[in-house]
Hints:
Elements: E1 2-5, E2 9-14, E3 20-26, E4 32-37, E5 44-48, E6 51-55, E7 58-62, E8 66-70, E9 84-89, H1 96-107, E10 111-115
Parallel strand pairs: 1-9, 7-10
Antiparallel strand pairs: 2-3, 3-4, 4-5, 5-6, 7-8, 8-9
Amino acid sequence: MQLKTAILFATPCDDEEDNMATLCCHSDQGQMFLLTRYPDEDTVDLTLDDEPSTLDGLKVTLSANRLLLEVAAGDTDALKGDETLEIVFTSQGSDLAEIEETLRIILDGTGTYVSEL
């Protein structure tokens, strides 16, 4: 599955949401992507088009022009049957340093983060 977005938003610690780390975007086709984790929880939540899922074994790779999520075989329902979700950045508007910080927080102890920056 692939989404294209102009901007990927990241919040490593949202005070208004009990310090939740959040990564989100809207695709150029209007699809919503949201990846979140509360600091006191050991699970990562992914919402795609208003369908929330809790993930086990998530791997995320960040490069200058894309974000690649790979889910475990048992979590493909979160991606509508796909094992991967590729989010392609169509502009340079995303703050990659903040995205990277947020991903490290979200995946710490719950998944794998790979930086290609």
